Amino acid sequence: MYQDLVDKKEKLAVIGLGYVGLPIALEFAKKISVIGFDINAKRIEQMKQGIDPSKELGKEAFEGTDITFTNSLDELKKAKFFVVAVPTPVDEHNVPDLVPIKKASETIGKVIKKGDYVVFESTVYPGCTEEDCLPIIEKISGLKNIADFKTGYSPERINPGDKKHTLATIIKVVSGCDATSLETIAKVYELVVTAGVHKASSIKVAEAAKIIENTQRDLNIALMNELSIIFDKMGINTFEVLEAAGTKWNFLKFSPGLVGGHCIGVDPYYLTYKASELGYTSRVILAGRYINDNMANYVARKVVRHIISNVSDVKSSRVLVMGATFKENVSDIRNSKVADVVRELKEFFLNVDVVDPHASSEELEHEYGFGLASETGKDYDAVIVTVCHEPYADLDDAYFASITKPNAIIADLKGIYRGKLNSRNYWSF
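-> structure tokens emitted (429 positions)
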């Protein structure tokens, strides 16, 4: 298998060409022949023109690659090694939504052949690959795992907007259904991962490793958020406390903030869901999730209280929200908690403008029911800076004074303007 891929006698296919799948597909396509498969025909046409619909990769990333973009099953059948990188979100009740990965498994079942390999990269709870996905593939294809085809799991570690920690520079965890598949899958990924691979003892171990990476971060951020609520009541700034505590060599440097995105705010629910199935109710993990999921409301209500205290006609007040993506310098709005801030502000009948240099107004309207303001207005009663986009970093006191009323509050969630704003009320975590 490995040598046939290297010699381009066989093809590797990546199913799902979003934030995770497209970088993987293009990286492999520098070394071997690749089929990039996605069910979204519009996205396929964009990628054929060297355009990343997610706006993460430039046109140069497509240059010098041996890749065919398609939404055709007939084309997909030409592959021998399949990588699945579809989304694994949660629904409105925070229950894992396995529809995309099950649909991908159905697709594989229609095209897989004897001797083929399937590697899942989508974040799932331990056991999902073997208990939920494989039965679908086997039923549709009529083939049996291990006997007829091989499977594995290699969790994605793509960090949107991060140009330093890329696919090639992050150690890749790999696993297989048996010793043979593990070695083959490891060698295939070593083609593109210069940092090397870590061979997990089983598929479940690899799945579990991925899920706790983000659960650990979620809990640490939850602690910072809870501390920020306590310190706010004490009248001290959390970022200043963290700077002081951070002078100790073994203090872990996490910061408070809104926890959104497709990983940290989602993955812990996959683990607690599976734990619940097994009769165990998580306490620590869900407590962290509760705190982080409620920070948007906390921020909004902090601003609303200020407005009520300073504005005679609350319904006429105006709020500017700067930043709609889930993190700085990306266009990704998936699970953005900024949407929760906006929703809560509007519950109090406030007039809210949202601006963002990276987000798509059309996507925000489709996903959350509001778009971007065409321009930044004047006379705002409050400004909430949610993410530290590069264009925001150098804004000064004069700028905020020019767009706000004298009694306005500037809510700086990232603490980037500490000690710099004097003419308006300033609040941060």
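The chain has 15 helices and 13 strands.
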